[in-house]
From TrEMBL:
Keyword Transcription listed: yes
Family: Belongs to the WD repeat ESC family.
Key words, A-Z: Repeat, Transcription, Transcription regulation, WD repeat
SUPFAM superfamilies (alphabetical): WD40 repeat-like (SSF50978)
Name of this protein: Uncharacterized protein
Length: 500
């Protein structure tokens, strides 16, 4: 759950959103396609991120120090002739060494030791270029990949499985075209996939082998437990879990959608493979193992519920991916970020949506008669008063970063003209209409260049946000540079269930 207003008032810095700080340019690299932060460090460790594009891979350490902001700690060049790599994921060796998995046009997944740069393993198997890689937080020795061959594959990175590493192939009736994006649920039991066929699928992850298990043959998984082609009308090139909710974008639609699978709960028992719905009804655009609409009942719930959508202007290029920061402490806020094709980064603080709803419906928000009377008297006299309504000063971005810091403050409600600001607020914070796109809570420009943002990644603490894109540009954005209390991860997730 979000932090109580009193706690947020004590931690006003949590309302800050990132500012641009530093830029790195990879020479002779037309596009940097993907970026990921190392997720397995200690709370006291400095954040480390890796980015990949074409033949180049770079590992960097950003710091809050003024004199040395971003340190390059490893750089690797893929010498394969036709290599054009576009996806990267962190994993771990069984002895705890950090590994990087990267892939792209060659349909091969390459795994290197980050400390030495040594190529340790190559995973063949896909029948086309690979578009995305993912590793579950619950098991750093497992890797998922998706490809233009219309499949998702699951791999073991353990030494015991080096000769036969493929655990499972998700194919059959899942996707009919290239799969562009995948993501693991935080509990590791589910995986999302989305693709060029407009489809978003959710699969259950089969039982994973340990070091004593021999993989004789990859398991074939034909049916996802949930599948829909109704949420988007074109290719879906980014899909992510947000707790039990889903964020996804169709690349020509101009918005990101937040939605949920009806009656899906990760706390419930994982359904067996036999529960996955088949394609016996070819006309069904949505199939679900979690909720079946009673036949002929037009008043029943849908199998998925659309909740919100976020406006992303100038984001109509193919293969652009947003980043979602989900905090591990209730004192920090979940933030969605997306970069467009004109060097603009959009941010949405999802805690503001909840607080705005509380604020706008609170009895304290209704202005008292004495305030209205005072405003009228001030207007007639033409004289200023320190207690007047601030009707000439609409509150916009400063809502979250001013001394007020929260919509929940009674004095704030009494100090402004609600109606003068309501329209501008609703464009950013009102959640009543799932078809009305919410404008960004902050837009940060990347100076001096025009770059298409391809991917966004967040550090574990949320203090750094990195955007990569065209012209070899890697942009580092920062918040909480100083005077911010350290918040140790408690591994509790923010519950977004009331965000809609």
């Amino acid at each position: 759950m979000a932090a109580p207003p009193a706690d947020r008032a004590k931690n006003k810095a949590t309302w800050d959103l990132p500012q641009w700080r530093e830029m790195i340019e990879l020479v002779d690299c037309p596009e940097v396609y993907d970026v990921k932060f190392y997720p397995y460090g200690k709370p006291t460790d400095d954040p480390i991120f890796a980015a990949v594009g074409g033949k180049k891979l770079i590992v960097c350490r950003p710091t809050h120090a003024k004199d040395k902001r971003v340190e390059t700690i490893q750089a690797v060049v893929d010498e394969e002739l036709n290599a054009d790599n576009c996806s990267i994921a962190w994993a771990q060796a069984e002895d705890g060494r950090p590994l990087l998995c990267y892939a792209g046009s060659t349909a091969l997944i390459k795994i290197i030791d980050v400390l030495t740069g040594e190529l340790l393993q190559v995973l063949p198997g896909h029948g086309g270029g690979i578009f995305d890689l993912a590793v579950p937080r619950t098991n750093p020795h497992i890797l998922a990949s998706c490809s233009e061959d219309s499949t998702v594959r699951l791999w073991s990175l353990r030494k015991a499985h080096k000769e036969s590493p493929c655990i499972a192939v998700f194919a059959g009736e899942g996707h009919l075209d290239a799969v562009l994006s995948i993501d693991f649920h935080a509990n590791g039991h589910y995986i999302l996939s989305a693709g060029q066929d407009h489809v978003v699928n959710m699969w259950t992850v089969p039982k994973l082998p340990d070091e004593s298990t021999i993989i004789e043959k990859a398991e074939a998984i034909h049916y996802p437990h949930f599948s829909t082609s109704e949420v988007h009308s074109n290719s879906v090139d980014c899909v992510r879990f947000y707790d039990d909710l889903i964020l996804s974008r169709g690349h020509e639609e101009g918005y990101i959608v937040l939605w949920q699978i009806t009656r899906f709960s990760s706390a419930a028992e994982v359904p067996p493979a036999s529960a996955a719905p088949t394609t016996y009804d070819q006309s069904a655009r949505t199939r679900s193992a979690f909720f079946k609409v009673p036949e002929g009942d037009k008043t029943a719930q849908r199998q998925y519920q659309r909740l919100l959508q976020f406006a992303i202007p100038q984001c109509n290029q193919w293969y652009m991916r947003f980043g979602m920061y989900t905090p591990y402490s209730s004192l920090r806020h979940p933030v969605l970020a997306m970069c467009n094709s004109a060097s603009k980064v959009f941010f949405w603080d999802l805690s503001r949506l909840v607080d705005y709803q509380k604020f706008i419906t609170s009895p304290e928000t209704v202005l008292k008669p004495n305030w209205l009377s005072l405003a009228s008297q001030t207007k007639k006299s033409g004289k200023s008063d320190t207690h007047r309504l601030l009707s000439q000063t609409p509150i916009d971005e400063s809502v979250a970063t001013s001394s007020v810091s929260s919509f929940s403050t009674e004095t704030f409600a009494a100090a402004i003209d609600i109606e003068a600001n309501r329209g501008a607020w609703d464009e950013k914070y009102a959640t009543g209409n799932p078809w009305k796109s919410l404008k960004a809570h902050k837009i940060e420009g990347i100076p001096r260049v025009t770059s298409v943002g391809r991917a966004v990644a967040w550090s574990e603490k949320g203090d750094f946000c990195v955007v990569v894109g065209s012209s070899g540009i890697i942009s580092v954005l920062e918040r909480w540079a100083r005077n911010t209390p350290d918040i140790k991860p408690d591994r509790s997730t923010v519950n977004p269930g009331n965000a809609s």
